[in-house]
Amino acid sequence: MRPVPARWFEVLVATEDLVKGVEALARAGDVELEVYSETTQRVSMPNLRDQFADYDKLLRRYQQYWPKEYLRPSEAPARPDRRLADALARLAQWQQQAEPLIAELETLLGEQAELEVLQAFLGQMPNDDFDFTHAGDAGPALAVRLFVLPERARIQHLPPAVLSVRVLADKRIFLLVLGEAGVIDSLQRDMQALKGQVIMIPAWLSGKRDAASEQVSEHRQATQQQADQLYATLDELAKAHNLHEVLGDIEQMEWFITHVSNLPVSENFAWITGWTSDVSRNDIHDILARASIRAVVHYPEAPMGVSPPMVFHNSWLSRPFEFFAKLLGVPAANELDPSIMLSLIVPVIFGYMFGDVGHGLVFTVAGIVLQKRWPLLRILISCGLSSMFFGWVFGSVFASEHIIQPLWVNPIQQPLPVLAAPLAGGVLVLLLGLAASGVQQFWQGQWRQWLAIDAAVIAIYLSVIGGVLDGRAWVIFPVGVLWYFVGSVALATESAPRAIAHALGQLVESVLQLLINTISFIRVGAFALAHAGLSLAVVSMANTASNPVVTAIILVLGNLLILVLEGLVVSIQTTRLVLFEFFIRFLKGTGRMFQPLTVPTKPATEATRR
Questions:
Q1: pLDDT tens digits for 391-408?
Q2: pTM for this structure?
Q3: CATH 3.30.70.2750 fits 118-223, yes or no
């Protein structure tokens, strides 16, 4: 019923296995690193980060030419600094041989892009009158250019000495111009100011439109073949330099220095320390052994002055409800973990406000389908089942109240019982919170204060609640008040009159707060009525339609609206009641959250991560 402090571990590992060992622990998912050692030597993280400056330049320049799948770090042991230095050196060797090939490839790709634009223009030319023979080597007096501009570009009047062919296609303006070289050069500057692309007419281009288009197609095929050969050569070069392993080492080292800092290290050994959420078994040794890590594992007592993170140990059903406690903080070792209680309270509150068999079924199925991707949504399973139960209680199936008979009442016809029941439930929830506070005070050695003061408040609260139903319950009230003041004076460190005055103010505040929190639960019944009212509105609108298809559409859209709108509102109200009516009684959240070491990304996506 309460979180457990994580277990301290210490691992002495060979420095050459340090990176691989830390990654193996990260993949286990239950280790949080925390450096604690008197050793003054450290892994030189700043120097390792400095080496990545050169790598970042190479990444921006050559990333698209590197392998993007099946990256794998080297299995050979090595110190972190030597592993990184060796990988960068091998990458530099690849760069020296690959740069001429890449420069040639980029030239071909640029030429191919221009040929693609030229062929698009030729395919859209309105007639076959223009002869491209000698257009590419016209001059020095004449010049021919093809400009490609955005569709919305505003082209001013062309000089009178310029012949032009204008084509609008594919949301682009193609403008072929012929004229004096000086005039064309001036026109080119104007077109570039309009964000136009300049296509030089190839010298080998000849003939009219159809013949020229065929020549361009042949040249595109030839350049594509040359590009494919260069890509194949680069692939072979990557294999020769083992880039899959080189990039795997670099990505692994980048992950390492991002998540690990200042580990104690010597020439031969490194010291890994931290916390594990596995508090009962000795799995760290097995994890490292399976990864062939040379290491010695020890589980001593945690060092003095080091605060352990808290670990939850809940069942499959109650584990998603840890989310609510984490909204306020993590319970400390002497605080109660409310997850088990919430696994009952939250579904009941949610289901009462959203009582519908059909809608509950949708929530349940959604929780089952989505829980693997988002484990938190497992909450929808229990909340959906609760909605289905209260749907039978209220007799509602997909907003219709005519399919099944209610097991209890119809909210529209009998709203008062629907409003009153949550008040009784609210009393039980508040009493549960007060009892949880008593348990915590017992754990913390403050049971005398709970018996002398807090228990008296509970008696006074029950007398007020019971007095509304039966006047005889008021007999408890003066007993509770006397009990409270006697206990307050007995535990006070100040004079009796001042202690009584102080206790009076505390008593009035505590009882009023409990009563207000109780009344706050009436919102559960109010939202149950709102759900019933909205359902009635949807069904009534559907019944007014004479066309069955329209009726079906109204029912489907109306139920979708209810699911989305009310699902959001009810979730917010449930969370509010848990946080501000229930948790306020006992949860302080003074513990520290366990934050396991992040697992490296999958090798198939690492090269394109940046």
A1: 999 999 999 988 999 999
A2: 0.72
A3: yes
